[in-house]
Design goal:
single chain, alpha/beta, 6-stranded parallel β-sheet, 36% helix, elongated
Length: 417
């Protein structure tokens, strides 16, 4: 399935009051919220349940303390709801807040907003928000990373899930799929009864493309820091070092690029990130006997474009990766991307053989072949990278704005998409 962005329409005079209920400030979402707030006829207020991502926290996936070095709260109106429960992670009952009724109802008893947008659907806060919105007559729009390629569940759990969605369907007035697989998910559970408005999972394209351009000036410095020969290509992995990310598959496939027993591959393998699997991966790398595999540890978001600029090709070999926003970021640096077919962005962003490669998850032979397709012929990686850059330019916040406007126009009289 492909989505063609609609052309923007003239702005209507009707000003829409939009509430967005989400667990905590998320580094990928902050620039999108700033962009929505720039719309003159959308009055956005974000309702946060927790501030742990602002204060800094220990990310269990990375296995290190994290404090994001990009602004999370600038440029849009927001409220932190009074806390009943809070921690350093998100779960069904965490965070849990009071004050949702007060925010949605307003001081006069009438609805304070024309529409409610929620992130996810299976938390106490979100369900509370949807119930309150339903009682007040506020239309609800849901956006999530959900897809049908879910982990195995028993028959009983699947029956319970279908019952849950039958109830959820009564609470939701529209959904905001992030891509093809997300749209399939919502169609599976809601059919055509609940409208769908594509709101692509995008990143701040301008930010990442500009930072990648700026990084060129410092490329030699980073190569020297890592001890890399500028004449050799670089295979890049940048993600949490967790088992489902399957960096182990990449190391194995990379080792097979060796031209002869004991000889290093021509390319380097640079691994950015940290997590529970790091020690095992370092042992696996050491067993190859190669000095060409470099572990760089956790790097904050503003540092990543330097590594994108360094790369010849980026690889995300994950299993059960609902999207993979790192792929969007790398494509803005005009680099080809190799992903497994269990990475959710693949149907929308990767044209196999043109701007990257898609291979069956877990198939190390296929991953090795994909690396060779990109690396073995001079000029292929550059051509693929340019096509990757061209593709990502139409998967942006502007398409998100169009999707949100269409979603609002369908429920708010006097507001035009």
């Amino acid at each position: 399935m492909t989505f063609e962005p609609e052309q923007p329409h003239p702005r209507a005079n009707r000003r829409v009051r939009l509430a967005y209920l989400v667990s905590h400030p998320i580094q990928y979402q902050a620039p999108l919220l700033r962009r929505i707030a720039q719309e003159p006829d959308i009055d956005l207020t974000v309702l946060f349940g927790s501030d742990f991502s602002v204060k800094g926290y220990r990310d269990e996936g990375f296995g290190v303390g994290v404090k994001w070095d990009v602004p999370l709260l600038d440029g849009y109106k927001h409220v932190f709801l009074p806390k009943l429960r809070d921690g350093q992670d998100v779960s069904f009952a965490m965070p849990m807040n009071r004050g949702i009724v007060r925010q949605l109802r307003g001081s006069g008893g009438e609805p304070a907003f024309d529409a409610l947008w929620v992130h996810g659907y299976a938390t106490v806060n979100v369900m509370h928000g949807m119930i309150v919105a339903k009682a007040l007559g506020i239309p609800v729009r849901v956006r999530s990373e959900s897809w049908l390629r879910d982990r195995g569940r028993s028959g009983v759990k699947l029956v319970l899930k279908n019952i849950f969605f039958a109830g959820l369907k009564q609470m939701v007035d529209g959904v905001l799929p992030i891509g093809t697989l997300s749209a399939e998910y919502w169609h599976h559970y809601f059919g055509d009864d609940v409208p769908r408005f594509l709101m692509p999972y995008a990143v701040d394209n301008s930010y990442f493309s500009e930072r990648a351009q700026e990084a060129k000036a410092g490329r030699a410095s980073l190569q020297a820091e890592l001890g890399l020969d500028p004449a050799r290509p670089v295979v890049l992995f940048a993600s949490k070092l967790q088992s489902r990310k399957h960096c182990d598959h990449l190391i194995e496939a990379y080792a097979r690029l060796s031209p002869a027993p004991g000889a290093e591959p021509e390319a380097y393998l640079v691994i950015v990130g940290d997590g529970e699997e790091r020690a095992a991966l370092e042992r696996q790398a050491a067993a190859t006997g190669f000095s060409s595999i470099h572990f760089c540890g956790f790097r904050n978001q503003s540092e990543l474009p330097r590594f994108f600029d360094l790369a010849t090709v980026f690889v995300l070999p994950s299993r059960h990766e609902p999207w993979g926003l790192i792929v969007n970021e790398v494509m803005n640096a005009a680099r080809p991307v190799i992903v497994s077919d269990d990475v959710g962005c693949a149907p929308d962003l990767i044209d196999d053989g043109r701007n990257g490669c898609i291979y069956p998850v877990g198939d190390v032979n296929a991953l090795e072949n994909a690396l060779r397709r990109v690396l073995d012929t001079p000029g292929v990686a550059d051509a693929m990278g340019q096509r990757a850059f061209e593709r990502i330019q139409s998967w942006s916040f502007e398409e998100d704005i169009q999707g949100m406007r269409r979603a609002l126009a369908s429920v708010v009289p006097g507001f035009e998409a």
